[in-house]
């Protein structure tokens, strides 16, 4: 009988461990450092220019990280001597075969632009509904332009004649309103479907 009384007393005196009473000895696997979450980032790897007859062909290579799946679309603004000449919305392909690095080749119409040294600036970012520019990046290069053919008239700012990209869908200003209307209609439909549920 005395043995059972002693064992019941020992059980009563032992307390259940609480978080503040845990021993300081490390457990297995605690030496691992938590994985760092990589922030979304746009990197412009290269901007190049090739002078053609009355045209300036640009080559813009950019990379999206952590991956293309984090960016459904990206905005790009192109400036010539501190004057914006073009703004496009780029839809990023989301398929398994799509890559994270892309190339754009805008061609500028340089008719009437006198020879000289000019600055080309490329700005890329995600534009949110509140107008904030996220993952913003900007790169600028200086080019020496010497036209193949000279004309009497002088133009201050060139126009973009074409815009192509590898595995990208380019949304020009003329098409942007159409896509915005489609997005508004889709949002209204989803709200209507939600109300029916």
User: Spans of 5+ residues with little confidence (pLDDT < 50)?
Assistant: none
Which descriptor suits the 3D outline? globular
Mind telling me which CATH architecture this is? Sandwich
CATH superfamily: Immunoglobulins
Please identify the top-level CATH class: Mainly Beta
CATH-assigned fold name? Immunoglobulin-like
Helical content stands at 10-25%
Main sheet makeup: 5 strands, antiparallel
Alpha-beta classification: alpha+beta
What does this structure look like?
A hairpin with a 5-residue loop joins strand 6 (116-127) and strand 7. The strands form two sheets. A five-stranded antiparallel sheet has the order 7-6-3-4-9. Strands 1-2-5-8 form a four-stranded antiparallel sheet, with no helix packed on it. The chain is built from two helices and nine strands, in the order αβββββββββα. The chain is of the alpha+beta class and 197 residues long. It has a single domain (41-182), classed as Sandwich (Immunoglobulin-like). It has helices at residues 2-13, 173-196, and strands at 41-52, 55-65, 73-80, 83-91, 101-109, 116-127, 133-145, 159-165, 169-171.
Summarize this structure as a short list of keywords or feature phrases.
5-stranded antiparallel sheet; alpha+beta; Immunoglobulin-like; 197 residues; single chain
Write the topology of this structure.
Blueprint: H1 2-13, E1 41-52, E2 55-65, E3 73-80, E4 83-91, E5 101-109, E6 116-127, E7 133-145, E8 159-165, E9 169-171, H2 173-196
Antiparallel strand pairs: 1-2, 2-5, 3-4, 3-6, 4-9, 5-8, 6-7
């Amino acid at each position: 009988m005395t043995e059972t009384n002693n064992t019941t007393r020992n059980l009563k005196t032992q307390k259940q461990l609480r978080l503040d009473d845990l021993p300081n000895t490390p457990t297995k696997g605690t030496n691992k450092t938590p994985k760092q979450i990589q922030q979304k980032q746009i990197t412009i790897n290269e901007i190049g220019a090739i002078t053609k007859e009355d045209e300036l062909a640009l080559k813009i290579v950019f990379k999206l990280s952590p991956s293309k799946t984090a960016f459904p679309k990206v905005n790009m603004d192109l400036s010539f001597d501190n004057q914006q000449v073009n703004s496009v919305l780029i839809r990023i392909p989301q398929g398994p075969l799509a890559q994270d690095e892309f190339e754009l080749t805008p061609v500028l119409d340089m008719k009437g632009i006198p020879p000289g040294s000019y600055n080309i600036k490329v700005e890329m970012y995600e534009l949110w509904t509140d107008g904030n520019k996220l993952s913003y990046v900007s790169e600028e290069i200086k080019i020496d332009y010497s036209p193949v053919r000279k004309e009497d008239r002088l133009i201050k700012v060139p126009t973009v004649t074409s815009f192509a990209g590898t595995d990208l869908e380019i949304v020009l200003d003329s098409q942007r309103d159409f896509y915005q209307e489609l997005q508004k209609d889709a949002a209204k439909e989803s709200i209507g479907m939600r109300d029916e549920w």
